[in-house]
């Protein structure tokens, strides 16, 4: 888990468009357009830190901000600010990958799988029953 800790910034030119990922997850069209515009116009920064016997996660992209603490293997509920819906989230380590499964109210299930290679982290998303709906690349700051 230590390799995931730190601050990461999106490498836009090495990342897939977010729109198909959001659509596959069943996010409403008006929210997809709004989130896509915000993500296009702003840097996307993710931070992961150790917090006692759990971890602290934060995401920032212009006006979109979210943060929460979690423990591996424990499901928690969180309000997803970009769509104003509750989600159940579970983080786990699977064969060295940091995986978070998200079930959002009124939308489908999404899975984000993260792998770190040196100073790069690749996040693969699957949603809507599709094995892979997109990849996002981040670089350690």
Automatic annotation (TrEMBL):
InterPro entries: Calycin. One of its GO terms (molecular function) is lipid binding. It comes from the Eukaryota. This is Uncharacterized protein LOC106165201. It comes from Lingula anatina. The lineage of its organism: Eukaryota, Metazoa, Spiralia, Lophotrochozoa, Brachiopoda. The gene is LOC106165201.
